[in-house]
Amino acid sequence: MIVSRGLSASLFRHRLLLSKRNIVTSVGAMASTGKNKTAERTKGFETNLWVEYAALAIESKAINLGQGFPDFSPPQFVIDALVESSKTTMLHQYTRGPGHPRLVKALAAMYSKLYGREINPMTEVVTAVGAYTSLYQSIQGHVNEGDEVILVEPFFDCYNPMVCMAGGKPVFVPLRPSASADKGEGRYPLTSSGWALDMDELKSAFSPKTKAIIINNPNNPTGKVFTRSELGAIAELCISNDVICISDEVYEWLIYPGKEHVRIATLPGMWERTITVGSAGKTFSATGWKLGWSVGPAPLIKNMMTINSNTAYTNPTPIQEAVAIGIETEMARLGEEGSYFKELPSLLLKKRDRMIQVLKEVGLTPIVPEGGYFLLADTANLGIKFDESTGSEPYDVQFAKWMTKEKRIAAIPPSYFFSPEHRYISDGLIRFCFCKEDSTLEAAYDAFRKWAAERRN
């Protein structure tokens, strides 16, 4: 059973927000003039989506269905592992820089089984301060000034600034609602499988300057799980153009019935050119532990280890030890009853289906996700109008702010996950997160029902 422990979610978010506000204020004061001016490579990336919307949710006293972190506890066996590791003297000291030996061995054993090939724990695995930093290592370790990096949209918002700060040029190729997808009576596909790449458009994005492509599977925010055929088409383009694939697979264990998570690194010709990014936070519902990893061929991982040794150097030893124990425990019972890798998606499936039901009641049109713990919903049927003049904020941004302030339900506008030229694709959509305690979700559903009653009157 998953239960809440420790700080309340609201108190935790409040403390986190105050910390971020202090940082932003300090940087803003320093960056104004002279030698304290912000570095040019950060130009255009001064604001942060998560800081802004966390602040809005707190100020509005809204129920936060925006940010993607659980407000329930990690499984007890990893909590116990962390407690026990804290009792061992040497686990309070530095460990091996590229990854704690026990953890990289556990990861290598897990992915060796999943990939059907032997993975060397010392040369083909590297850990990081969260998957965020794993992405940073992969981009900084490989992208040179002027290199092009294809970003499949929608993408997690850090991809673009990380590529730009490395001197690279992002090339955007969006998932679009497929013309053949079942849309029912709505504007968007009924399920996330209805989002698809135009392969001709993707092919045209490759050039002699293309260094890498970044994909997110399962995708945030659509919940799309790429099919073997889709990944095979991406793989063919990577191979024919000699391009690195950075595959962000942090939601790899959150796959719902009827879908299969295919790891692109397992496709023919892809191991030697693929970096796969994983996350302890997403795997064990412990986002505050900030531990990520990458698995791939030794030449690519070596480049990432160079970035690691010159930035973070190492990661917290007790957390790495606890996650190692967690992975060892799960691999011993993979697919069996009692496995957290099986229990968590089953739990989230119920929460997903319940949210879909309630969103329909209020007049929203949900797009059923196949993986992850986010859900997009179309707001068109609500008929709510906002400023559409030139220069105004996108509709979904205005809707998210209005809903947070007026209905006290916080969500995220998905246009932030698209490049400016493709934001029209998410017109009228809003992203909800359902990896929350039932009590949190029921409080939100009460607010939704009140809203539905107001619309009927």
UniProtKB/TrEMBL annotation:
One of its GO terms (molecular function) is pyridoxal phosphate binding. Pathway: Amino-acid degradation; L-kynurenine degradation; kynurenate from L-kynurenine: step 1/2. The keyword Transmembrane helix does not apply. Residues 61-447 form the Aminotransferase class I/classII large domain. It comes from the Eukaryota. SUPFAM superfamilies: PLP-dependent transferases. Homodimer. Belongs to the class-I pyridoxal-phosphate-dependent aminotransferase family. This is Aminotransferase class I/classII large domain-containing protein. It comes from Amphimedon queenslandica (Sponge).
